[in-house]
Design a protein that fits this description.
It is built from two helices and four strands. By secondary structure, it is α+β, with helices and mostly antiparallel strands. A four-stranded antiparallel beta sheet has the order 2-3-1-4.
Length: 82
């Protein structure tokens, strides 16, 4: 089973649209949406394991132009948590 995480993203001023377009092209990003509130974009990512999620965020998402800061929240799908 793949590891899923929600990545909360802050973008540089005026760069949200370009960042969103770039994030949607990243392999491993399942969904990316612009949101209101303290973050500009929230992505759902999936990878083989926790280390792969970390590599995806640090190696690919952080390189998307306009992305300035991220917070990753790993989904907990343990029995009884649903």
């Amino acid at each position: 089973m793949a590891t899923r995480a929600f990545v909360l993203i802050e973008t540089s001023i005026g760069k949200s649209r370009a960042a969103l377009d770039g994030l949607r092209k990243v392999n491993g990003v399942v969904a990316a949406d612009a949101v209101t509130g303290p973050y500009d974009i929230i992505c759902v990512v999936e990878a083989a394991d926790l280390n792969a999620v970390g590599d995806l965020v640090s190696g690919r998402i952080h390189r998307v132009p306009g992305v300035s800061r991220t917070v990753s929240c790993v989904a907990m799908n343990a029995p009884g948590m649903r």
